[in-house]
Amino acid sequence: MRVLTGIQASGKLHIGNYFGAMKPMVELQKEHELFTFIANYHSLTTSKDAATLKQYTIDAAVDYLSLGIDPQKTTFWVQSHVPEVLELYWILSKFTPMGLLERAHSYKDKVAKGISANHALFSYPVLMAADILMLDTQIVPVGKDQIQHVEMTRDIAIKFNNEYGDIFVLPEHQVQAEVATIPGIDGQKMSKSYDNAIDLFMEEKALQKRCNKIISSSTPLGEPLEWEDDNIFALASLFLDNREKLELQVRYQSGKEGYGHFKKYLKELIWEELSEAREKREYYLNHMDEVNDILAMGAKKAQSIAQVKMTKVKEAIGL
Ligand code: ADP
Ligand code: TRP
């Protein structure tokens, strides 16, 4: 199956992103022909300045490669390196009724939040349709908020195919298995917008400091600790199998250790989990030419598929 995922790069990644988005993506490449790109044309809709957009794009490339995107298995590129997608975007616009775009939840939500509407924000789903249709994508793994965009892609493709013949493959969305919401250091959903995140790539000392800030109850040392609603326990559990979770429960109940010990333990778990990714990241940061080569190779492959498709599309419509 050909699977496509688009990444909106928006700064530093945290543990919620890791368990909610990156790990499942890395799993996909084991079974499918995975195409993954950094959606920098899409990010432009909300970008404030050139330097940040550039930096976020590079950071995402390095972080995703470090966390397990395997360039031997997965085609990985930056969206704007395959500009054919913009040509298709314009053509698809002709098959996109205004009403379809006006009903888009994500656009309506953004406008309701006070983001000023512009044409790029409005037509965002058409560009997403172009990403998907250009590569004959069969499956698009998405979070719930993106399901509608894949449905719109199908609507656009059906309208095109009805008028000009069977050119586009109709994609299916696949909602990723519900990952429990990972709590932040204050117990709310971990999010970079809530200032409660534990970032993936921190210095060891800073990581311990961040873990020390996790809010827990104030049971004095020497008394058994509650593990059920404890944020440290919830975060540590992400890294443990069932047997290890039971062992941790026993340690909580023994009364021999305080929250400080468990904050140290959590830091160790995070540090350990990411040790390989950290090494790879160090490597890539010192070999940016390799990162650029990987992205160029990915762009070349995506482009070769895109060009064949565009020839067919243009022929079909008379361009
Ligand atoms: P943030 O809330 O920090 O801005 P994003 O909205 O950029 O995060 O999310 C990127 C991806 O990470 C999405 O697939 C989202 O579902 C996942 N994700 C983000 N935060 C969490 C969380 N706390 N628990 C589980 N998954 C999360
Ligand atoms: N809109 C997606 C998001 O915000 C990113 C994206 C852009 C995408 N183009 C795509 C995802 C094509 C899947 C397929 O997460």
Question: Which helices and strands occur, and which strands form pairs?
Answer:
Layout: E1 2-7, H1 15-31, E2 33-38, H2 40-43, H3 50-66, E3 75-78, H4 84-93, H5 98-102, H6 105-112, H7 119-134, E4 139-142, H8 147-164, E5 172-175, H9 204-212, H10 231-237, H11 242-254, H12 259-273, H13 275-286, H14 288-317
Parallel strand pairs: 1-2, 2-3, 4-5
Helix pairs in contact: 3-13, 4-7, 4-14, 7-8, 9-12, 10-12
Tryptophan (TRP) is lined by residues 4-6, 8, 39, 42, 128, 131-132, 140, 146.
Characterise the protein shown here.
The strands form 2 sheets. The chain has a 3-stranded parallel beta sheet. It has a two-stranded parallel sheet with strand order 4-5. The chain is elongated, with a radius of gyration of 22 Å. It folds into 2 domains: 2-182 and 287-317, Rossmann fold (3-Layer(aba) Sandwich); 202-273, Orthogonal Bundle (Tyrosyl-Transfer RNA Synthetase). It is built from 14 helices and 5 strands. α4 packs across α7 (119-134), α7 (119-134) crosses α8 and α9 packs across α12 (259-273). 57% of the residues lie in helices and 8% in strands. It has helices at residues 15-31, 40-43, 50-66, 84-93, 98-102, 105-112, 119-134, 147-164, 204-212, 231-237, 242-254, 259-273, 275-286, 288-317, and strands at residues 2-7, 33-38, 75-78, 139-142, 172-175. With 319 residues, the chain is mainly alpha-helical. The structure holds adenosine-5'-diphosphate (ADP) and tryptophan. The site of adenosine-5'-diphosphate has 15 residues, from α1. Tryptophan (TRP) binds next to β1 and α7.
